[in-house]
Specification:
This protein is an alpha/beta fold. The chain is about 35% helix and about 15% strand.
Length: about 475
């Protein structure tokens, strides 16, 4: 057989493009890196100084108020009606069926659609007034009440998915379908890194059960995998296999990594696969983390008074420990820290379970805000607390003297934010008398995302990534910055 004929048969288009690194491949790469096409950058963009060279945005679009984000994600859907949005009318009408004029034919889950009645039920605990403006919060949230003047409480967030997985996916990626980058990955991609020895996006987990947490909830979607979130563990190695095994010292590890890098660079030059570059970067990051991460994760170094303020206990896994770690990570320049706390899915036994989760989270979440403020970091750190949806005004199952449950409710729910350019002491939005529909100032998820990016100096319409012939962004094809929320 003619060897040239055989070469022609074997040479696929992908191989041809991959090997043409100094020809057509360079032309394609130049097109992809074209700032105007990739990011939609405008000549009028406000340059506030160059960012880290690893970030896709060469300049921010306007002066930022926040440099970093700490997102306290309450997985399962905390009940806005029992925590943040008091409804005396709902309490008075406990036991009555939800009026059709309120529901307006809106869909409900299969868990309650078969009930003969949808009996309304009031809050599981009393509400109290806190702060200068007398903001009403559940009595189980005294620590949040102590900092409520530093917080913006939003009572009118609205979503669409009615089940957990698509709802979490939507609030974290802007789309119900899996495969899109999460907000932390978008920021890592756009803004790059500040601390070369730590990942740009770190994830911390707590809670003993509830809904499963999929790894794609901190995934990079179609972005290069270097932008995915990195989970840190509370026990053993913070990151699996980051420590050298017995018999391997630092110099030996360095020689091994150098040899592996050389092999990977040969392959990268041959095929041009960006995932090879990601792998090289991951090895180098792990090596640098070996020195700094053990000290970072050792909260026993904190003063006793600081541990008590958070309710943190060295050596244990808890939301309190993770809040303290979030502050330590932020101090060291980590761009996006996301805490996931499970156990908020209260379909039954809500009065008991609600108090249990408040006891587990209220003190440390408030301590985080207070700690950042006293260190002068709150103004440049955006703290977000919230879940994927709220809970229904009616009970799932029967209402007893000491117990009831609530089903999923995406029509309206509450979150709170603090610092990072958000107006403190503000209560924004309003729901109807039964807490079922938004009555004033709805906050769709895409508007929330646009506002978060705005606080970080990013125009949400200009942070895009071309994939499969389309420019994608976190806010998809809509989204408005909520200017009333801005300080």
């Amino acid at each position: 057989m003619d060897p040239f004929d055989q070469l022609g048969r074997d040479q696929t288009r992908r191989q041809f493009l991959g090997r043409s690194t100094k020809g057509i491949g360079v032309v394609a790469l130049a097109s992809l890196l074209n700032e105007g096409r990739l990011l939609g950058a405008s000549p009028d963009s406000v340059a506030v100084g160059p960012l880290d060279t690893e970030g896709a945005l060469p300049h921010l679009h306007f002066a930022p108020r926040a440099k970093r984000v700490i997102y306290l994600f309450m997985s399962g859907g905390p009940s806005h009606l029992d925590l943040f949005d008091p409804k005396p009318a709902l309490t008075k009408r406990t036991g009555e069926d939800l009026p059709p004029s309120v529901r307006m034919g809106q869909r409900i889950t299969g868990m309650t659609s078969g009930q003969a009645h949808l009996p309304m039920v009031g809050a599981a605990a009393a509400f109290k007034k806190f702060g200068k403006n007398g903001v009403e919060l559940c009595e189980h949230l005294p620590h949040l009440g102590s900092i409520v003047d530093d917080v913006c409480l939003i009572r009118s967030v609205t979503s669409d998915p009615i089940n957990h997985d698509p709802a979490v996916t939507y609030v974290l990626t802007g789309n119900q379908q899996p495969g899109r980058p999460t907000i932390g990955s978008w920021l890592s991609y756009g803004l790059g890194s500040v601390n070369k020895n730590l990942p740009e996006f770190v994830v911390l987990l707590s809670g003993g059960g509830g809904q499963p947490l999929q790894t794609r909830y901190w995934g990079q979607g179609f972005l290069p995998s270097r932008y995915q979130g990195v989970p840190f563990r509370s026990h053993g190695d913070p990151v699996l296999y980051v420590s050298n095994p017995p018999g391997i010292d630092g110099p030996t590890r360095r020689r091994m990594l150098d040899a592996v890098r050389e092999l990977n660079e040969i392959e990268l030059d041959s095929v041009g696969d960006p995932e090879i570059a990601t792998r090289i970067n991951a090895y180098e990051m792990a090596y640098r983390m070996q020195a700094g991460v053990p000290e970072l994760m050792d909260i026993a170094r904190e003063p006793k008074a600081m541990l008590e303020m958070y309710g943190a206990e060295p050596g244990k896994s808890s939301f309190a420990n993770n809040c303290l770690l979030a502050r330590r990570l932020s101090e060291r320049g980590v761009r996006f820290v996301q805490l996931y706390h499970r156990d908020w899915d209260h379909h039954g036994n809500l009065p008991v379970e609600l108090k249990r989760q408040c006891d587990a989270t209220d003190r440390s979440a408030a301590a985080l805000v207070r700690d950042l403020k006293q260190r002068g970091l709150l103004d440049e750190t955006l703290v977000i607390w919230g879940g994927e949806f709220g809970r229904t005004a009616y009970s799932q199952g029967a209402i007893t003297k000491n117990s009831f449950g609530r089903d999923h409710h995406p029509r309206c729910y509450s979150i709170w934010m603090a610092g990072g350019g958000i107006k403190p002491g503000l209560v924004y939005g309003k729901t109807d008398d039964l807490g079922y529909n938004v009555a004033e100032n709805p906050v769709p998820v895409h508007d929330l995302h646009a506002t978060i990016l705005h606080c970080l100096g990013v125009d949400h319409t200009k942070l895009t990534y071309r994939f499969q012939g389309r420019d994608f962004r976190l806010t998809d094809v809509e989204g408005t910055v909520l200017k009333p929320l801005l300080a």
